[in-house]
Specification:
alpha/beta, Lyase 2-enoyl-coa Hydratase, Chain  A, domain 2, 6-stranded mixed beta sheet, 4-stranded mixed beta sheet, 11 helices, 10 strands, binds ligand LHQ
Length: 257
């Protein structure tokens, strides 16, 4: 059974974390397959990426059995070879990545979700910075993204206490964009992915680049970057189409070019 499934249809790539009997916990094989799937999403045929989990969980993070396996990859490799390349790929991918949190998201599983461009969750989902419970520190970008998403105090408390946060609490905190009732989740998440796949993909890529850099830039640097990226956006076919459609009072058809 493939630990990662990748399906591409009508501009939407769906990456499914697929070890349901282990709550989609990551082992080395799965981490490499995830990196490959994200690389495959660089194709121009993809204009939006959805990441979700098979079965009842999104992901329980690192497969803890692999950590203690004497034939396993070893602590020195797990972050540098498994998770960090996944996080950097998601942030560098020049298209929107939508995390569809379909169930519990713990440890690195939670943080892979939280580094995505938009995070939606089903009402029964939950998030756990499970690390302190096993004597580790939040990784996979947890100490980078969480304080920026929800503020220092809440991030600090969640990272230290490892409290379970419900989808509704996560939405209130700003960790999640929207929560949908379980019965509507698949349809609502897919509708959002469809909208994203029909937007001007290059403008979204430039937006993502600007937001990535806003984490580290001064205001002046950011204003200069917006200027540069806006000029690039204004040279796309989609910009011409957007303005023409507005003036002609019709719906634009963006092609991601
Ligand atoms: C699992 C796991 C799992 C293996 C459930 N591994 N089997 C980076 C650097 C280096 C090393 C370490 O890791 C990291 C990054 C990290 O992600 S560290 C954090 C690792 N994750 C955790 O500590 C979470 C561990 N799991 C849990 O706390 C619970 O399973 C949660 C809260 C996620 C779900 O609870 P339940 O819904 O009650 O499910 P369960 O605990 O009964 O689990 C179902 C099965 O899945 C069970 O197997 P079994 O054969 O008994 O049915 C678990 O053993 C297995 N499983 N998580 N991470």
């Amino acid at each position: 059974m493939n630990a990662i499934l990748l399906e591409i249809n009508n501009g939407i790539a769906t990456i499914t974390l697929n070890r349901p009997d282990k709550l989609n916990a990551f082992n080395r094989e799965m981490a490499f397959a995830m990196q490959q799937a994200l690389d495959d999403c660089k194709s121009d045929t993809v204009r939006c990426v959805m990441i979700t989990g098979a079965g009842k969980a999104f992901s329980a993070g690192q497969d803890l059995a692999e950590v203690v396996d004497p034939n396993g990859p070893g602590m020195d490799k797990i972050l540098s070879e498994h998770y960090n390349p996944i996080i950097t790929r998601i942030r560098a991918l020049e298209k929107p990545v939508l995390a569809c949190i379909n169930g519990v998201a713990a440890g690195a599983g939670a943080n892979i979700g939280l580094c995505c461009d938009i995070v939606v969750a089903t009402a029964s989902a939950s998030f756990i910075q499970a690390f302190s419970k096993i004597g580790l520190i939040p990784d996979s970008g947890g100490t980078y993204f969480l304080p920026r998403l929800i503020g220092w105090q809440k991030a600090s408390a969640l990272c230290m206490l490892g409290d379970k946060v419900s989808a509704t609490e996560a939405e209130q905190m700003g960790m999640v964009y929207k929560v949908f009732p379980d019965a509507d989740f698949n349809e609502a998440a897919f509708a959002m992915a469809t909208s994203l796949s029909q937007l001007p993909t290059q403008a979204l890529a430039f937006t993502k680049k600007a937001l990535n850099n806003s984490m580290i830039h001064s205001m002046d640097q950011q204003l200069q970057m917006e200027d540069r990226l806006q000029q690039q956006a204004s040279k796309t076919e989609d910009f011409k189409e957007g303005v023409a459609a507005f003036l002609e009072k019709r719906k634009p058809v963006f092609r991601g070019k």
